[in-house]
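Board notes (copied after class):
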Amino acid sequence: MRRFNRLAALSRAVSSGATSAATQHRHHQLAQPAALFSTFSSCQSQGFAQKIVKRLGPSFAGGVAGFSAAAPSLAQDAKPQAKEQPRSQKFSDVVLYQYEACPFCNKVKAFLDYYRIPYKVVEVNPISKKEIKWSDYKKVPILKVDGEQMVDSSDIMDKLFQRIHLDNASSQSDEEKKWRAWVDNHLVHVLSPNIYRTTSEALESFDYITTQGNFSFTEKLAAKYAGAAAMYFVSKKLKKRHNITDERASLYEAAEIWVDALNGRHYLGGSKPNLADLAVFGVLRPIRHLKSGRDMVEHTRIGDWYTRMESSVGSSRIKE
């Protein structure tokens, strides 16, 4: 309760600042974040959590995790170097519309990085979503490949995989399909209750989200404190929905289940990662350097596999 009171106090303080700032800027620039913040300042129930989640959208609020590939390396002494692989020549213009902290977006990035497909990133403002107004699809990730729109992280991976392996008609094994489904139907649902488990962890997550995301100054203030409070409440609802009694225990169990699935192999794909490896790595990469991710590596056997993946995946993002 003390932690939440401190969070509420911070919210009221920033809300006051946001109100002052509103007198110095155009009203339409501040309308959405100011509304979010004034609601948080006066609300003491889960009703606000539902409002902000609706405003920010399910891809952002339900899927945001925290750190991504831009975070420090898993290794404390030296960052493992990605293995050199030839860049793909099958794609000439690839643009990913994303939220930096979204695990589903990071699934797609893991695929693009591993297959050395050069791509540009457009960071979407989760409140206005003006960067994707051109599309009828209003969630992320959206991938444009030579002008063609692709949506849904798993579908994107499937389509790109088929194009890359068109010549030899390479197919996925039943094991690979099973564990990719496990990622989407189980693993991702374990993440939010962990990264928003306490108010301090929720603030840690939103501190990164607002630093790396596409927000105006006032939106950053509103999203950081109101968003953290909202997701703290939402995480409790998600915990109940997915029958999670102990957040950390569920995360550790998922990590151990994955390591058991490897059955002594370097990757589920054997000597090299397959799509299931890339999916697991993609959704875990955003949380790796949050408290929940640090705890996961410290208390489970997943660290060695993660280090190998980090080295193998690398990055093919085009810096602008």
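Comment from the instructor: The chain has a mean pLDDT of 79. The two ends are 44 Å apart (CA to CA).
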